[in-house]
Amino acid sequence: MLKYIFEEADFDLLRNDLNLIPPKTWTNMNMLEMFSERYHFNEASTTKFKIKSTLCSFWNEKANDTNAPNSAKRRAMALYTTVNLVIDSRPALSLINSNIKKQSKKILKDSLVQDAYDEILEAGTSHNENNSTCEDQQPEPKKRKHLKATDFKNVGWGIKITMLSEHLTVVLMAYWT
Predict the structure, then answer these.
(1) SS3 letters across 16-77
(2) Mutual orientation of helices 28-38 and 70-87 as an angle, nearest 10°?
(3) What's the pLDDT at 56?
(4) How far apart are CA 118 and CA 110, in angstroms?
(5) Helix pair angle (28-38, 11-19), 10° resolution
(6) For residue 76, which of 27, 22, 36 has the smallest C-alpha distance?
(7) Cα 174 from Cα 177, distance rounded (Å)
(8) Is 55:83 a contact under the CB 8 Å cutoff?
(9) Tens-digit pLDDT profile for the chain (177 aa)?
(10) How far apart are CA 79 and CA 144, in angstroms?
(11) What does the alpha-carbon distance between residue 67 and residue 73 come to, in Å, rounded to a whole number?
């Protein structure tokens, strides 16, 4: 499902989403959870401001709607008065931050996968160019298929990461060729 950025969504789109929720399940937290499921949040402060203004406008509309039943109007007024309290609470902030964290993890994962894919393509094209120009060269010796724990014993973190990334490249190259 394609998710839009919450801060860029206009009020009419948000209002349509809010109208999908039945009045019996109206709560500010339910509305926040619905926004979190359907949209990506950019930043906690701008998201909180947009949620507060959207919910206040929505509850105000529902409270002043002449076609709405009295119970829905009373509920909307009660929810209107608690918007700031609920959105500034810890559970709401943790929900907003988890949305932001999920989004940033996905972006990081996608960029790492793309970088690895680009490296494989570059290595594959350079390997093909080397084969076409130098037919007489000896093939490279085969590398181990696994890393040993002793390889990591007395080296720093930077070297460990380099060794792991080189090994991953070798394994992926062997898989793709």
Answers:
(1) HHHHCCCHHHCCHHHHHHHHHHHEECCCHHHHHHHHHHHHHHHHHHHHCCCCCCHHHHHHHH
(2) 70
(3) 93
(4) 12
(5) 120
(6) 27
(7) 5
(8) yes
(9) 567 787 788 888 888 888 888 888 888 898 888 888 888 888 888 889 999 999 999 999 989 988 888 888 899 899 999 999 999 999 988 888 888 888 777 766 777 767 777 777 777 665 555 555 555 566 666 656 677 777 777 887 777 778 788 877 777 777 666
(10) 64
(11) 10
Q: Token pair of 44, please?
A: 């906690």
Q: Hey, what amino acid is at 3?
A: K
**b/e for 160-169, b at 16 or more Cβ within 10 A?**
eeeeeeebee
pLDDT value of residue 41: 83
Question: Residue 49 corresponds to which amino acid?
Answer: F
Under 8 Å between Cβ of 15 and 75: no
Tokens of 18: 């809010």
61-81 as b/e, with b when 16 or more CB fall inside 10 Å? ebbeeeebeeebbebbeebbe
Q: What does the block give as tokens for 28?
A: 């500010």
